[in-house]
Amino acid sequence: MAAPPSAYKDRHFLAVIGDEDSVTGLLLAGIGHVTQPPDAQKNFLVVDAKTEISTIEQAFDNFTQKRKDIAILLINQHIAEKIRNRVDTYTEAFPAVLEVPSKDHPYDPEKDSVLRRVRRLFGE
Amino acid sequence: MSGAGDREAVFPTRQSLGLMKNKLKGAETGHSLLKRKSEALTKRFREITRRIDEAKRKMGRVMQIAAFSLAEVTYAVGGDIGYQIQESAKQARFRVRTKQENVSGVFLPQFESYTTEGNNDFGLTGLGKGGQQVQRCRETYARAVETLVELASLQTAFVILDEVIKVVNRRVNAIEHVIIPRTENTIKYINSELDELDREEFYRLKKVKNNKQRDNDAKELEAASKRRGSDKENTADDPGATDILGEQEDQDVIF
């Protein structure tokens, strides 16, 4: 039934996969976190036109499965489009994956994985 | 016979009939409770989906404003501050904690944002110029992230509720379409089987009674005929009966 408390007790951080502007802005808000060295892991990934899709997928898997301290994963919608299959098949409650708009790509509710599920459930 | 339907493997006794009746009652109670739970959850679920829809739209607007304020910063600082910020991010100032909310026995986690005081990774950003814009941008983005956190808790609640509703509905359907008919079938089977036994017993008793009656009658008849026979014998033998006191001489008793 409901997730046990251990599933989300230690989750404190937000993670971002986004273009440079979105990441910069969110880091300014103070969500950036780098774990202690030696394995300094950032909780954000800047994606530009040259970033490989496999890198994005790897970061997505890392944030959603490997790391246990992330509560919310923010991902730009146009980047989520690139790994749409991963995002759509992701159904876990923790961390919550949230598609956010970016500066260059306005928000489209039709593409959002959660809103699509809402639509499907209510048969629209 | 009703044993043809799907039923449980029980012996048709009065005890198991009682057990089955209790079970049926329990299943019906459970069914109505679960149904109510499912309805309560669905109500909550609909409310949450509506709020998600609203929040997503609000998020679109908020992020637009935030992006605009970032553009202001870029203009004011006069260069790209992205690398500087990415390099100086060390400790998260903006964090979330989770607490639980109980909706008819389902624990829905809720994210709550808080800021840790004391560490400021971007103390030097915009020191040369544009510090005010940087400050404003930070505030705007902080508000935006708060909206995002709110949305994230709604979405998590959505995912969990979705799953729980599915489980509850599955149970409701299982009880309604499998357990209750099967128990009813079992009760019918036991009843018919008990009736059958009753009839058999009744028939047996009747048979026994008949047999007894017949035996008694036969005996009586026999007795009667015997009596009559002996009477007849008596009457028949009477004339020829030896008169022990008669003139016939007794035989000598020889010792």
From TrEMBL, chain A:
It comes from the Eukaryota. Keywords: Hydrogen ion transport, Ion transport, Membrane, Transport, Vacuole. It holds the Pfam family ATP-synt_F. It is found in: Vacuole membrane. It is a peripheral membrane protein. InterPro entries: ATPase_V1-cplx_f_g_su, ATPase_V1-cplx_fsu_euk, ATPase_V1_fsu_sf. The keyword Membrane applies. GO terms for cellular component: fungal-type vacuole membrane; proton-transporting V-type ATPase, V1 domain. GO terms for molecular function: proton-transporting ATPase activity, rotational mechanism. Subunit of the V1 complex of vacuolar(H+)-ATPase (V-ATPase), a multisubunit enzyme composed of a peripheral complex (V1) that hydrolyzes ATP and a membrane integral complex (V0) that translocates protons. V-ATPase is responsible for acidifying and maintaining the pH of intracellular compartments. V-ATPase is a heteromultimeric enzyme composed of a peripheral catalytic V1 complex (components A to H) attached to an integral membrane V0 proton pore complex (components: a, c, c', c'', d, e, f and VOA1). V-ATPase is a heteromultimeric enzyme made up of two complexes: the ATP-hydrolytic V1 complex and the proton translocation V0 complex. Belongs to the V-ATPase F subunit family. This is V-type proton ATPase subunit F. It comes from Lepraria neglecta. The gene is VMA7.
Automatic annotation (TrEMBL), chain B:
Pfam families: ATP-synt_D. Keywords: Hydrogen ion transport, Ion transport, Membrane, Transport, Vacuole. It is found in: Vacuole membrane. Belongs to the V-ATPase D subunit family. This is V-type proton ATPase subunit D. Residues 212-255 are annotated as: Disordered. Residues 212-235 have a biased composition (Basic and acidic residues). It comes from Lepraria neglecta. The lineage of its organism: Eukaryota, Fungi, Dikarya, Ascomycota, Pezizomycotina. It is a peripheral membrane protein.
